Amino acid sequence: MDHARAAISNLFGGEPTSYTRFSIARQTDGDNSHVEMNLAADEEEGGEIGKPEHLHASMPPPRRNGKNLCLIIMAAVVLLLIGFLIGYLSYRGRMQRVNRCLDGSGNCEMTPTASYFSDDGMEEEEVPGPRILYWPELRNMLSTKLSAPCLEANMRQREGKNSFEAGKAEDESTASYIHDQFTLFRLDDVWNDEHYVRLQDRGSSKNQVWSIENGREDLVESPDEYVAYSKNGTVIGRPVYVNYGRKEDFQQIRIMGIPMNGTIIIFRAGKITLAEKVANARKEGAAGALMFPDFSKNNKADAYVPFGHAHLGTGDPFTPGFPSFNHTQFPPVESSGLPRIPVQTISRQAATKLFGKMDGDKCVPDWTGIMGCKMTGNRNMTVKLTVNNVMVDRKILNIFGVIKGFEEPDRYVVLGAQRDSWGPGAARAGVGTAILLELARVISDMVKSDDYKPRRSIIFASWSAGEYGAVGATEWLEGYTTTLHAKAFTYINLDTAVLGSRDVKISASPLLYSLLETVMKRVKDPTKDSGNLYNRVGSDWIKRVVPLDLDNAAFPFLAYSGIPVVSFGFYDEGDEYSFLGTTEDTLANLKEKTDKLYDLMRAAAEVAGQIALRLTHDHQLFLDFDRYSEELLSFQEKLWHFEPNVKELGLTLNWLYFARGDFQRAADALRRDIANSDRENRIVRRALNDRMMKVEYDFLSPYLSPKDAPFRHIFFGKGSHTLQSLLENLMQLKVNVSSVDVDELKEQLALVTWTIKGAANALVGDIWNTDNEI
């Protein structure tokens, strides 16, 4: 070999003093692909280590003749053939293992190795690299490790407890337990987030509802339950029943010519939140409001009164737009979403008693459900409502644990669940908290025991004061509003994941539709011997996606911070869980509602877990930005019917259409950039992922103050800047032109148009690539 080397050197007429060696050196920052080039002198046998002898330097150059040349060529060919065979056999073996892994037939236990060289150039023994886990194996590992008995053990932590009110002893005790569990699971970091908030509690005397007839007062109900943030005081008014308290329900009352100013509005729970019902009643001039649970097949629930809150917003209403940290100097302002009228919840029994005393117009046919339902009371019959709630200052704790990503630890998915509840809260808070703990245990075990290395971080969050309108979650978002939208790419809500078993309820950002569909095809339906969840929801499930309401902790993540969200759960349509939000929301009653409680919890956990793992495992974020192109096109199709009415005002919808086209072209450009990019280039990959992450955030209107209009999302927010508000104004324009404020309509068109145009520009990436068609 020495002679061959010397011969080759002489063949090319040179006498090299060194040669090039490439060593694959494993870097401390986790990047194993770095190649280090070392220049070293030739090492010969017999030379002292570290001091190679250059034997050829002292040898006279041999004569070049034909025989030597032939031998040199033959030696070179033999060496090339040997090198080729070694490389081919090595490559073939690796590809066979990869194929077995990808098709699911192998165990995927590939352990790449790397050659190491010491500083003096001596080759050392090969060291195995980290085990590679492919997505099918990772998905199966999650499914195998999720345990129904562990979920049951987590649920039993709430047994025997009457209440977990935010900031009180049981809530703090549960927070401490969750903190200890996160620590036991060996999460990378565990910490608390303290907030000092103003909540409302029941007063020393109970709230009361009376009926007054011919000067005689009759106590209808005096419950322990109350509505947080209700105005205190006593009001008397004529009762008026308004079904679910929606805008269309109040419109029906107006059509019937029933006056509502100074009345006590009665409505049933469901369809929209209590806060929205109260806001509609207040807008009509009502003096007070009562709400009773919706009709149910479970007669046992007729005597129970639900807890609720009447703040039309999320977070602490006495620090709107500001985080409630202890060091914050709070301004003397209140949320505009406070109800300003007394509000109380009552039982179905009390509602039946009130309807029995009312003898006005009969209910609208599709509003019936209680025997003897009436629309109004007569002139001699009124209702008196007394509310004696008190304001309290409390410290609440959000508990966090994190599994840090190995490549991009500053990008993370958040899984969260409400911890507090007014009563036992088995369905309200117990199910979500149990799933949160189980996912933290399982995913941490996958990292610590099975060499799973997520690219991005996973945060587990336990919120407090969720019963008062996602207070804990909102205050955290407000505290870190300048950074979270650029770092958190998805929020997964685990609350109320099981309220029944027959149907599936989904609320999600369009960016996550494709991922959610893919996951449902891989999760077994626990209510059937065969089949998956996708077969249950059907191919048209997107048409039945439920909009997020204010009581859902995912709502502020989406509408306030512009972070994609998903909320998934089981329920029974038309036969709701009657004890939600009452003192009878116990484990026993929840198990009576469904005999597959823990199997359903496990399925919900698997859905949430797969979403979290897929988003942190893949090179490219599984965010389908093209979905918003479809959403915008669908909205544009709804506007075509109003073009003649808009033209009559001297306005046009063309600029809005152009903005939508710009977004479509920007989405196409991003798709091309992704297809043409080098996925192994971490810098390029991160830049493309960041562009996808910002899509949701860019639909927050930049022309509004987050303090005055916190829910700025034009698709899912609240206010005149939203697409829905614009559509409602155009519908009113078609009914009665004089009832529409033209200046307000112009402003709406401008806000929507330029928000969409801004989202298109941001999606393109570089300013020189933007489309300036508008």
What would you say this structure looks like, in words?
With 774 residues, the chain is α/β, with parallel strands linked by helices. It folds into four domains: 2-132, no CATH class; 136-201 and 392-617, Aminopeptidase; 208-388, Glucose Oxidase, domain 1 (3-Layer(bba) Sandwich), CATH 3.50.30.30; 626-769, Transcription Elongation Factor S-II, Chain A, CATH 1.20.930.40. Helices cover 38% and strands 16% of the residues. It contains 22 helices and 21 strands. Strands 5-16-18-17-19-21-20 form a seven-stranded mixed beta sheet, with helices on both faces. Strands 7-6-15-9 form a four-stranded antiparallel beta sheet, with helices on one face. It has a four-stranded parallel beta sheet with strand order 10-11-12-14, with helices on both faces. α4 (148-155) packs across α9. The chain is globular and about 125 Å long. The termini are far apart. Mean pLDDT is 85; it is low at 3-64 and 94-120. It is a single-pass type II membrane protein. Residues 238-311 form the PA domain. It is found in: Cell membrane; Melanosome. Residues 652-763 form the Transferrin receptor-like dimerisation domain. Residues 398-594 form the Peptidase M28 domain.
